[in-house]
Amino acid sequence: MTTKQSIDPDILEKAADWLVLLHSGEMTEQQQLDFQQWQQQHPDHQLAIERAMRFNQNFAALPDHLDAKQLLQSKASLQQSMVKKFIWILSPVVTAWLAYQYLPWQLWQADLSSKTGEIRSITLEDGSTLTLASNSHVNLEFDQHTRKLELVEGEIYIQTAPQPAQSYRPFIVHTINGTIQALGTQFNVRQDDKNTNTLVDVYQHAVAIQPTKQVNKTILQQGEMAQFDRNDIQGVEKLQQIQPYWTQHLLVVENQSLDQVLAEIYRYQKGQYFIENTAKNIKVSGVFSLKNPKQSIETLAQTYDLKLNYYSEYVLYIKKEQ
User: Fold this and answer.
1) What pLDDT, on the 0 to 100 scale, is given for residue 226?
2) I need a labelling partner for 253 at 20 to 30 A (CA). Which of 143, 144, 182, 240 fits?
């Protein structure tokens, strides 16, 4: 296989071109054919696309409000950033710096982790049950005074075990945005994809939420859900589902956009999808398997008249059938 050092910067720049166009959601039929042909012209072309998706985070960090025109206008700066990054990889001088900056050391060092597509259930030393969603990472700190759990990334469901009154230890979940203290409960905690918000669902009893920059705690009761950042809680709402269906490898949605549903499915499989703008807001309702994400995507395609173009094992472009 061609090594990283041998990929021509011009190929990397062209790969950046294609990824920007894919993200625009405005690819024509001819452009899709051209992209497929370009990938097949040389092994380095496919390698450049896959490497760009693994190492470059520019696209994931783009603001949601950018439209296709703005994306295409920003192509030059994205290309420059991407090509520079890959050229730097060729230099041994910066290898250690790149490893420190870009490799997820905090995730690798977590006490408990789940792989992409894996749902992992663990009984903790106090008898509580912890379930990790796909690609989730947790640190534990249990001592004689407290039961602390840090959600580094991903999503967890907790069923706390009762504690004798004489030896009670509070059960507290820490996230980058604050703490959630269990009050004899079953609850779900999730970090959003950009780690800017924490989402909490309470299925039994209650929890006490305290954002990092708040002095007071807010009690969230059974049947309620809330989202908070480091500064404040952004409203308490009625829980939308009676149980965390993902723990049963199911995705249950009602009147959600196709883009939202695909984003959730892709938490359980490797790769990246791109979707035509005209298909993003199709409203979806149904029950989909998280054990077999590809089958769920095919079900969506059949139900909502979608065309699936797989350009590799990791790249999927989705559009409405004509």
Assistant:
1) 96
2) 182
DSSP of 32-46, one letter per residue? HHHHHHHHHH-HHHH
Q: Is the dihedral of CA 10, 13, 19, 24 positive or negative?
A: negative
Mapped to the 3 state alphabet, what secondary structure does 126-156 carry? CCCEEEECCCCEEEEEECCCCEEEEEEECEE
pLDDT tens, 229-264? 999 998 899 998 899 999 999 999 999 999 999 999
The rounded distance, in Å, linking the Cα atoms of 321 and 276 is: 11
User: Looking at the predicted structure, is the pLDDT value of residue 310 above 70?
Assistant: yes
Judge whether residue 183 has pLDDT over 80: yes
275 burial class (0-12, 13-18, 19+ CB within 10 angstroms)?
buried
**DSSP letter at 214?**
-
The rounded distance, in Å, linking the Cα atoms of 178 and 187 is 16
**Element (DSSP H or E) covering residue 103:** none
Give 318's DSSP letter.
Answer: E
How large is the average pLDDT for residues 34-50? Answer: 78
Owner of token pair 């589902």: 241
Q: Check: CB of residue 176 under 8 Å from CB of residue 154.
A: no
pTM for the model stands at 0.73
Residue that is written with structure tokens 């496919």 in the block? 46
> CA 180 to CA 130: how far, in whole Å?
15
CA distance 156 to 159: 10
Q: Which range (75-89, 263-277, 307-321) has the least confidence?
A: 75-89
Taking Cα atoms as reference points, which of 18, 40, 13 lies closest to residue 31? 18
Are 290 and 296 in contact by the 8 Å Cβ rule? The answer is yes
Share of the chain above pLDDT 90, in %: 52
Residue with tokens 């990397």: 12
Confirm if 138 and 113 have CB atoms less than 8 A apart: yes
Q: Are strands 147-153 and 137-142 parallel, antiparallel or unpaired?
A: antiparallel
| Cα 227–chain centre separation | 17
